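FAQ

Q: What does a record look like?
A: Structure on top, sequence underneath. For example:
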């Protein structure tokens, strides 16, 4: 059996072997393919990891979102903390709100239109990226970004502004990496809240709350469904979809938002139609600002203290000192009074109202902020104050020993400064001779004020005013005595603050505009508390300041120049006030105070054009008076109470010293303890005759002789005293002319013509006499032709031999010697014509 040949293999065995080899080759191919794909995947993963590491190596950490402080608008409020004066618009408006204050419909609409897979993606939506990539490739340009809400957020907050503006693959990769990292650290609600408070909605509105207020004038939680869904569509292209500029396009975008919401399952199609049918009522934006000059003054102060970046972007809450009621009343009074003064070429005014501690209650910088030059804040503009500066000149003089009773000489005076003669004149052109300091200040006499500044010294005065808050006096070497009359410029706000210093007892008072400043987190950055300023007028500052206040509030003292019932007299309101007028009526001032308020007013023209005789009393004084009356309408004013260290003493009005028997008038005056009246004038008694204008002589009839007391004035007052009949007589009274009383009489007519060669001269000489003659009407050489030691009563006095003289004019003189040695003289002019 073993040698039997093997039968041939069946045919199917061969075909089976062939078929088994084919699957093996396919398998090998599949293995290679799978291996290759794995290699590609591995390399792809390595590439992705490499890209992640490379592009993510210098990215900011996601935790910076916690430290991010978006800009917020600074709000400036009145002192009540609720009246908004101005919202500082820096890069835009932003008002952050909590997520639960944002309507769910608005949140859903935002998610639907900006990132439908927001709640499921990791911060990057790969399908959307792939779709966007294909759309961009087929379009040949960037038509879709596929940015998720998280990616938009990190682009806004974590990327630099320069990188955020780049349109590059690199920026997209870095943005995607950051989005993934943020998604790993923060919840979806945290991300959505940040996004909705950061995204730009157009019209300078950042965040949903600012957008709701900007477009609809309401809070975001008050939005209707239509308004909420319209807002949700704006961030894609805020400029194009701005409803103020293109409402139809914004509405078309709203329709897309609603469709997306339906597709995402947030609402039904019927709800979408119902929402779209709701009317959209836009509220046009209005940028309002109250008290604009004050507000911008505050803004400048804030920038000085905190920097422009903080003020424009830091969300400060600023509580100012402004009282809305008094601001409105001040504006009204200014408008009314300037309208009345326009006929006299006055076009503008400024007002500052201060509380006694310096808080600015009102600041009116112009009649019309929106008018020509209306943006110029005249309360801060340097202008010449005229006599409004005088109270401080006299305060400095009181500090150096003068008193309200000190006598000043109001007479024509001149000074030479830098080679130029300075001759001031009083407002009314009159001179009043000796005046007490009280009257000199109350009546704004110029020459005494200049003499007071001369006494104080210009440099000392400049230093004092700097202490009182005047910043425009910089170099004493540039100023002269004309400074006493307000020739150098000051600011209304600063001068009003200086008057507040007088009211506060001569202490430093700086005008205050800001009470509190808090940052966006409610942290206190600044808080003002009233402080007692340092005394500026020496150890007796309070007493000296009171004396100035007492003078400025003395209505009767002003009557000498201003008359009764002048504009500065307030019924039942004790008030200290001083007016001022600069040269050519370019500036009209009135600054003063009661126990409760300090008010400063300026009237004039911004370009310094002269007004038509608008002085302090009939210009700025009108506004000052009206505001004072209004302020005290329901607020009884208290009198100014003398502090300790003030005494009242009797004073002789004419001399400024203690009363003396010959003093014609005695008054009571106030002094600082330790000082008192000092006489500047003494008296002397004279025997006078006639009407008292001449000295009595021995021949003066006894019944006409009497004694009179006259003040003895210094040399500089002599001319004024003589002109005004106040000087003592220096010449004897003329002798009597009646025949029965005359000491010397010539019985010869004036201008007689003599033709004879002998002239018999008759007359009366009641005492030893000499009779002589001289050639001409005013001879210098005389020749005696008659004399006697015995009196002659109506008899011959002498004989003139005319033949010895040439023809012409002659003067005959009779001189009679009286018992006291005095000589009485009588003359006659004659003409010799032989």
């Amino acid at each position: 059996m073993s040698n039997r040949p093997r039968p041939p293999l069946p045919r199917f065995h061969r075909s089976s072997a062939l078929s088994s080899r084919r699957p093996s080759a396919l398998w090998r191919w599949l293995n290679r393919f799978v291996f290759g794909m794995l290699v590609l995947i591995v390399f792809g993963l390595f590439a992705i990891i490499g890209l992640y590491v490379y592009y993510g190596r210098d990215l900011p950490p996601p935790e910076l979102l916690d430290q991010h402080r978006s800009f917020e608008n600074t709000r400036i409020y009145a002192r009540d903390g609720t009246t908004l004066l101005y919202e500082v618009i820096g890069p835009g408006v932003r008002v952050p709100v909590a997520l639960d204050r944002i309507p769910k419909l608005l949140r859903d609409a935002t998610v639907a239109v900006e990132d439908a897979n927001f709640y499921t993606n990791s911060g990057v939506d790969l399908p959307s990226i792939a779709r966007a990539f294909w759309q961009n490739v087929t379009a040949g340009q960037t038509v879709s970004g596929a940015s998720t809400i998280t990616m938009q957020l990190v682009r806004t907050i974590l990327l630099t502004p320069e990188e955020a503006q780049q349109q590059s693959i690199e920026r997209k990769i870095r943005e995607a990496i950051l989005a993934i990292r943020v998604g790993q650290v923060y919840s979806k609600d945290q991300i959505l809240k940040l996004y909705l408070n950061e995204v730009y909605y157009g019209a300078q509105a950042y965040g949903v709350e600012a957008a709701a207020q900007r477009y609809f004038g309401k809070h975001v939680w008050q939005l209707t469904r239509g308004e909420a869904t319209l807002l949700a569509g704006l961030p894609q292209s805020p400029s194009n979809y701005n409803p103020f500029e293109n409402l139809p396009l914004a509405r078309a975008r709203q329709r897309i938002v609603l469709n997306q919401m339906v597709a995402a399952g947030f609402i039904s199609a019927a709800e979408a139609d119902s929402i779209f049918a709701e009317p959209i009522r836009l509220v046009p934006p209005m940028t309002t600002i109250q008290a604009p000059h004050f507000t911008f003054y505050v803004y400048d102060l804030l920038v000085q203290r905190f920097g422009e970046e903080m003020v424009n972007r830091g969300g400060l809450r600023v509580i100012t000192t402004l009282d809305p009621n008094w601001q409105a009343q001040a504006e009204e009074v200014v408008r009314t009074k300037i309208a009345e003064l326009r006929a006299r070429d006055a076009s503008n005014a400024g007002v500052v109202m201060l509380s006694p501690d310096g808080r600015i209650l009102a600041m009116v910088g112009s009649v019309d902020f929106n008018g020509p030059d209306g943006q110029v804040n005249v309360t801060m503009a340097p202008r010449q104050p005229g006599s409004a500066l005088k109270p401080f000149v006299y305060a400095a003089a009181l500090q150096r020993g003068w008193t309200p009773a000190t006598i000043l000489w109001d007479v024509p005076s001149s000074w030479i400064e830098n080679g130029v003669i300075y001759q001031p004149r009083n407002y009314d052109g009159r001179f009043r001779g000796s005046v007490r300091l009280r009257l000199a200040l109350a009546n704004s006499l110029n020459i005494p004020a200049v003499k007071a500044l001369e006494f104080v010294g210009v440099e000392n005065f400049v230093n004092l005013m700097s202490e009182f808050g005047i910043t425009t006096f910089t170099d004493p070497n540039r100023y002269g005595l004309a400074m006493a009359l307000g020739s150098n410029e000051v600011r209304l706000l600063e001068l009003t603050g200086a008057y507040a210093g007088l009211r506060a007892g001569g202490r430093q008072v700086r005008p205050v505009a800001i009470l509190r400043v808090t940052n966006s987190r409610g942290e206190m950055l600044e808080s003002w508390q009233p402080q007692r300023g340092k005394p500026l007028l020496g150890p007796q500052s309070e007493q000296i300041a009171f004396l100035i206040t007492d003078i400025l509030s003395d209505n009767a003292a002003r009557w000498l120049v201003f008359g009764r019932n002048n504009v500065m007299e307030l019924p039942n309101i004790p008030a200290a006030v001083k007016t001022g007028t600069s040269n050519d009526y370019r500036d009209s001032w009135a600054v003063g105070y009661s126990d409760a308020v300090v008010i400063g007013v300026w009237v004039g023209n911004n370009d310094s054009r002269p007004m038509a005789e608008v002085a302090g009393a009939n210009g700025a004084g009108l506004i000052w008076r009206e505001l004072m009356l209004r302020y005290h309408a329901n607020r009884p004013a208290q009198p100014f109470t003398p502090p300790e260290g003030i005494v009242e003493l009797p004073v002789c009005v004419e001399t400024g010293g203690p009363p003396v028997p010959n003093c014609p008038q005695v008054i009571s005056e106030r002094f600082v303890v330790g000082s008192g009246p000092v006489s500047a004038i003494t008296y002397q008694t004279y025997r006078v005759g006639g009407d008292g204008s001449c000295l009595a002589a021995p021949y003066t009839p006894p019944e006409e002789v009497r004694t009179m007391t006259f003040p003895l004035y210094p040399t500089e007052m002599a001319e004024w005293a003589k002109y005004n009949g106040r000087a003592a007589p220096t010449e004897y009274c003329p002798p009597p002319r009646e025949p029965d009383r005359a000491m010397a009489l010539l019985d010869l007519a004036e201008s007689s013509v003599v033709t004879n060669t002998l002239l018999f001269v008759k007359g009366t000489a009641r005492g030893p006499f000499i009779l002589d003659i001289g050639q001409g009407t005013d001879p210098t050489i005389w020749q005696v032709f008659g004399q006697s030691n015995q009196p002659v009563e109506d008899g011959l006095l002498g004989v003139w031999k005319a033949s010895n003289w040439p023809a012409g004019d002659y003067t005959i003189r009779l001189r009679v010697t009286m018992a006291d040695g005095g000589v009485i003289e009588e003359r006659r002019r004659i003409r010799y014509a032989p």
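Q: Is there anything notable about this one?
A: The radius of gyration is 51 Å.
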